[in-house]
Every structure is written in C-alpha cells, then in structure tokens.
C-alpha cells in the first residue's frame, strides 16, 4: 500500500514538473482520442456493426469524411499546445511581476531613509517601512491621501501647492533634484527636522505618460541636536573667554553707582544735600543699573540654546551687539576697532545669537593673532551689500595665517593656538552656522593680516 502511494506521489510530481505546453498537448490529445472513439462508436452503432477493426476499416471506406475526424487528436493536441504556450507566457509574466514587486518591496524596505512616491495630484502611491517608522503612519492609512495633509506643516502647505502647480505647468521647480532641509509633521502632531530630495519620473499607462515623484526623506533630528550641542559648547567656551571683558564692562557702571551713592551720603551727612542734587545722583544710579542689567541680559541671551525658528536679522545690529560684548576687552588689549557699516542693508535669515557667536569667534581669533604680532593692532569690521547677498568682513593686522594651515582652519578641533588657549571649535562651529544660513565663509591672507568674509543671501 505504501509503495502504491509513493508511486502515485512520484507520478503527480512528475506531471507537475512537465511544462505547460506538454501538459496542454497531452490533455488535447486525450480529448482528441476520446472524440475520435465516440465518433467511431456512433458511426458503427448507426450502421449496426460490431466494434471490430474490420468494421472500423469498413466505415472508413464507406464514409471518407471520417478521415477528417481521425485528425482530432493531432488538431486538438496542437491547439492545446498553443494554449499551453500562451499560459506559460502569461504565467512567466505574472511571476516576473511578482518577483519584480517583491524586489521593489525589498529594495524600498531595506532603505534607512523614508521613501514616499506620490503622483502629480500629490496623492501617495507607495511608502516604505522607514516612512512608516519616521512619520508614525501605517501604509494602508496613507495610500491615496494627499502628501501635504500627511507630513507637511500647515505653514508650508500653500507654498508646496503653488510649487507643485508651477512645476506641472512649466516643468521647472526650485526643489526638484535638490537636497534641502525643512520641518516635517509627525502623525502625533509634533514637528521635526528632515532632509528632503525629490526626483521626478514618468509612469506609462497604455499610450499615456503621467508625472510622478519620489521623495527621499531623512530624519536629521539627532544631527541637529548634536550640532546644537556643539554650538552650545563653543558658545560657553566663548563666554568663559569673555569673562574678563564682561567684568570690566560691569565694573564701569558699578563704579559710577558707588561714587554717586558715596557722594550723596557725604552730602547728606554734612546736611548740604538738596533735592535736586539727590535726584540727579539717583537718576545716574538708575541709568547705570539699567546699563548693567542690559549687559547681563545680553550675556544670558547669548548663553542660552537657540530653539526658535530662523528669523530676519539685521547684520549690522549683530555686528554691533557682538562688538559690545568684547569692546572693553579689545580696548584693554590696546586694539583699535573700526566699523564700516552700510547705511542701508538688506536683512538675512538666521538666528541672531548664533550669528553673534560667529562674529565673536572671529573677533577673538583676531585679538589672539594680534597679541602674537608686533604690527599695528587694528581690527576692521565691514558690512555691505553685493549682488543679492550681504557681505560681512572681519580684518585684522595679526600677520596672517600660515599658508600650510590655511586650508584646514575650519576643521573641527584644529587649532594653531597654544595648549589650553583654544578649543579648536570656534571656526568649525562658525562654518556650520554660516552654512546652515545658506551662506559661505572664507579666509584669506592680506598684506598685514588675515580677512574672513561671510557671504549670506538677502532675505525679503
């Protein structure tokens, strides 16, 4: 019994392994043989003959048309063989599509970045597993939904819609084929920073071509947080270096307050203090207290970590505020400071405190370079407009930067200062801040020193 079952299984496996063409041809031939046998039986029965070979030959002699019926196994076998060929081709195409779909799915889901495919109307056509993880949606929840309603914050949706319409109308788009950073919207409502690249491709349906887009999205929250921590570390290091300067800045109003209070007390003890005199001294004390409070508030603002969105800032105000923090320190070092600020100047987009940090880093480096030089001690700051850009330059007379290290000065932790005098973060952090503002910063040697030039796009 077991032998018969094994033989049957082997026979079924053998049949399953036969190609579609052979299977169909075999079935067609069997049907043809059955049709032929039935036809012969009907002819013999109608003639009253027994089913013998002689009688079969006889009916062929009496009715030559039956020879056509004899071709049934060949005709049906050939016909079914062709159907098997068609079935095999369709099955191969279906298998290829399944394999292609599986490879596409595997490729999509193996990507660490989110991939979202959407059509010209903005409706989501496909997402990968990374997109589900980054945005908190399930795939079935987003298919067919407008991408703007899913991941684009409300304040950007109008600009997104206009940009998409403009691209479909003109074929040109400022964001297509570009990598850019933007805030994205999570399923739970919180926003987070992402890096996005969008590419266009065409979907062919019959004879019609339709535009579709692929968005590659990377969550850069950790990178942004690390950069913010690095900026904060550099900022606190700068604050430590400015401690002496701030002490002198605060010492001036405190001295004025002490003298005004002492003079008032002396007049009162002598009984010659009138109301006008005391009012004048109290007013001076009030003014100097406000001055000290301004310095402390500025230091507190400078020391905190920037979390707000970028805003339009006046580069001239940034330069003046940064200079206020170290002006006393530069004066005590015997360094002359000259500022050349344009009367009318466009605004730029960024964080004022971070931009102040860049200027402070450049001023500190200029001061240190001048300390090591015997030339005339002078720092010149300029703010002026170019072609759709704003330039900020910090120039010193510190003898310049050695040519063999000029190309490395923006590298993290690289410094030419003595051990314990610099962190090697200042210029690296400054480079990152300016880059995030879509600008550039370059260093070059001039006749008697070095010049750093910051170039930022105008903001309107």
List its salient traits.
single chain; 460 residues; alpha+beta; Heat Shock Protein 90; 5-stranded antiparallel beta sheet; 5-stranded mixed beta sheet; 56% helix
Which structural class should the secondary elements be placed in?
alpha+beta
The fraction of residues in strands falls at 15-25%
Principal-axis shape: rod-shaped
Helix content: 55-70%
CATH T-level topology of the largest domain: Heat Shock Protein 90
Number of helical segments with 4 or more residues: 15
Order of helices and strands: HHHHHEEHHHHEEEHHHEHEEHEEHEE
Mean pLDDT: 79
Overall structural domain count? 3
List the helices and strands and how they pair.
Elements: H1 2-17, H2 20-47, H3 53-62, H4 66-69, H5 72-110, E1 114-119, E2 124-127, H6 129-135, H7 139-142, H8 147-151, H9 154-170, E3 179-185, E4 191-205, E5 208-219, H10 221-241, H11 243-270, H12 275-303, E6 311-313, H13 315-332, E7 336-341, E8 348-350, H14 352-371, E9 378-385, E10 389-396, H15 426-436, E11 440-445, E12 450-457
Helix pairs in contact: 2-5, 10-15, 11-12, 11-13, 13-14, 14-15
What would you note in describing this structure?
The chain is α+β, with helices and mostly antiparallel strands and 460 residues long. It has 3 domains: 2-107, no CATH class; 111-219, Beta-Lactamase (2-Layer Sandwich); 225-457, Histidine kinase-like ATPase, C-terminal domain (Heat Shock Protein 90, 2-Layer Sandwich). It is built from 15 helices and 12 strands. The strands form 3 sheets. It has a 5-stranded antiparallel sheet. A 5-stranded mixed sheet has the order 7-9-10-12-11.
């Amino acid at each position: 019994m077991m032998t018969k079952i094994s033989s049957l299984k082997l026979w079924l496996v053998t049949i399953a392994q036969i190609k579609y063409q052979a299977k169909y041809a075999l079935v067609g031939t069997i049907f043809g043989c059955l049709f032929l046998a039935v036809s012969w039986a009907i002819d013999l029965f109608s003639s009253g003959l027994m089913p013998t070979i002689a009688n079969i030959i006889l009916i062929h002699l009496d009715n030559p048309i039956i020879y056509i019926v004899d071709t049934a196994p060949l005709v049906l076998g050939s016909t079914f063989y062709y159907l098997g060929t068609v079935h095999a081709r369709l099955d191969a195409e279906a298998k290829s599509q399944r394999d292609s779909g599986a490879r596409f799915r595997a490729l999509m889901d193996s990507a660490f970045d989110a991939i979202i495919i959407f059509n010209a109307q903005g409706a989501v056509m496909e997402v990968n597993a990374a997109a589900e993880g980054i945005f908190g949606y399930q795939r079935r929840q987003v298919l067919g939904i407008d991408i703007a309603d899913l991941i684009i914050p409300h304040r950007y949706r109008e600009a997104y819609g206009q940009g998409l319409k403009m691209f479909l109308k003109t074929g040109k788009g400022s964001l297509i084929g570009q990598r850019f950073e933007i805030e994205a919207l999570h399923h739970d409502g919180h926003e987070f920073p992402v890096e996005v690249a969008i590419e266009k491709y065409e979907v062919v349906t019959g004879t019609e071509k339709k535009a579709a887009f692929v968005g590659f999205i990377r969550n850069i929250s950790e990178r942004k947080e690390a950069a913010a921590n690095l900026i904060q570390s550099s900022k606190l290091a700068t604050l430590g270096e400015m401690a002496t300067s701030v002490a002198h800045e605060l010492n001036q109003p405190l001295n004025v307050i002490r003298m005004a209070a002492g003079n008032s007390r002396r007049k009162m003890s002598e009984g010659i203090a009138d109301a006008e005199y005391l009012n004048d001294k109290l007013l001076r004390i009030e003014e100097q207290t406000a001055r000290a409070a301004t310095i402390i508030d500025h230091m507190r603002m400078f020391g905190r970590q920037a979390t707000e969105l970028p805003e339009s800032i006046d580069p001239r105000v940034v330069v003046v505020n940064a200079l206020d923090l170290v002006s006393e320190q530069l004066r005590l070092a015997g360094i002359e400071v000259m500022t050349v600020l344009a009367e009318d100047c466009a605004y730029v987009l960024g964080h004022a405190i971070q931009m102040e940090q860049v200027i402070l880093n450049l001023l500190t480096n200029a001061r240190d370079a001048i300390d090591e030089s015997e030339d005339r001690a002078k720092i010149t700051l300029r703010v002026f407009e170019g072609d759709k850009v704003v330039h900020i330059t910090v120039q010193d007379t510190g003898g310049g930067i050695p040519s063999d290290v000029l190309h490395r000065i923006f590298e993290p932790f690289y410094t030419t200062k003595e051990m314990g005098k610099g962190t090697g973060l200042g210029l690296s952090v400054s480079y990152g801040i300016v880059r995030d503002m879509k600008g550039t910063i370059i260093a070059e040697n001039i006749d008697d020193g070095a010049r750093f030039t910051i170039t930022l796009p105008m903001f309107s």
